Every structure is written in structure tokens, then in C-alpha cells.
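We emphasize that the prediction below concerns an isolated chain of 242 residues; any contacts that depend on oligomerization or on bound cofactors are therefore not represented. The input was used exactly as deposited, without trimming of termini.
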Amino acid sequence: MKLRNLFGGKKEEADPSSLSAFLHQMLLGVKKLGEKVATDIMIPRVDVTTIYLGQPLEEVIGSMREHGYSRFPVWKEKLDNVVGVLYAKDILYRLEKDNGYNTLKRKVISEDMLREPFFIPESKKIESLLKEFKSKKVHMAIVLDEYGGFSGVVTLENIIEIIIGDIQDEYDFEQEEIKKITDNIFEVDARTLLEDLEEGLGLNFGEHKEEIDTLGGLIYNTLEHVPQMGEEVEINKVLYQV
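Result of the prediction step, given as a C-alpha cell string:
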């Protein structure tokens, strides 16, 4: 089988005897990588766990335990003003250096605890971003909108998931992506794939799926700004409320 058949043909044309389904998926993912920009795969800011400058360290440690993330955007005065990234391992190092948790209980997050943020525009090509992640040795980028406001984050894991599919680690919790509230009302996770919504709810997103993968990405692309809590938008005769 030739590679052009993998990229240009239908999925059923892949010959399982010559190439595993997993490798087939990876090759398609690599192709898809060149078509994506930051807004297509980013975690929108409403779903990002952030920390503010001056936040009590005891609270921050609690947040780290609760969410299990290794990196947190840190803002000053307002959420749109991201001033750095806090690494969980840096805090662990300080805990060890300062002889334990009790000595840090009265401390707060300060700028000397942070690493420089890596900012990218919403239009950043993911293929290019992956190369910069490697050269800069970072795993998280802060996405800024056209006005310089905080739009979301893209992590190395987000990019890898394009290629090999969803990654579940020990801190990820299985949750129902589509939850029925009434006959006509459903609660849906913003990260739900459009194809899953089509299959689960009988919706049709047509050509939207060619450029957008998730419901959150579709809403963001339709509104052309970061959605606010309670904001509504109608798409293909279906009303969505954030």
C-alpha cells in the first residue's frame, strides 16, 4: 500500500495486513497536524485552571493536588494579563529546599517562582508550534487573541492527541461528555468531538468538520471571540449556551 492511499483514500482502503489501524490513525493525524492552528485544539480559558500573583501557596498546592496539572498560567490584576507559568516541580523543589510544607504555609505566589510564558497568536500553525516546543524545551503555550487578551492554552499533550488520539493519565477523570437534562436539552462538554455529537444526538455539522474538531472550537469560531458564561449562539437551528 502506498502512503498516498492513506492520505487521499477512504479509511476502509487501508489494508490491516500491511499496516496496523493504529499506525494508519497516526499517519492521518500527522497529515491533520499541518491543517490545524492554535484555536482548533487549544483549551479555552474558561476551562483553564489558573493562578493569580499573590495567591496563598497553600491554596495553590491544594489546586495542584485537586487537578493534577504540572503547569499553571499565572496572571496579575486581571486574567488577560498572564505574567508567567508556575511549574509544580518548582514548587516541590522549594518545599524540599525550605524544609517542608509548614515553612511555606504563609507564603504567596511571587514572580521569582515563575517561568517565562511562551505567547502565541490564535492563528499559530500547530506544525510550527510543535517545532518551537522542541527548540524552546517548553510544553505549554499561552494563546492570545487579536487584542492581546488571554484566549487559552495549547499543550504538547494537545498536539500529541491529534496524532495518536485521546490520552488518559492517572489524573484524568472519565466524565459523561453528553448528558441529557430533558428531551430537548443536553449538557455537553466543550471538548466533545463534533462527530460524537452527530452520532449521539443526530446533529449535522457538515463542512464545519473539515476545519474544526470540537464543539468549543465551533462556538469560538462562530462567535469570533472568547465566549462568556451564559452567552448564547445559534448554529444550524440549534441553540447553544455557554
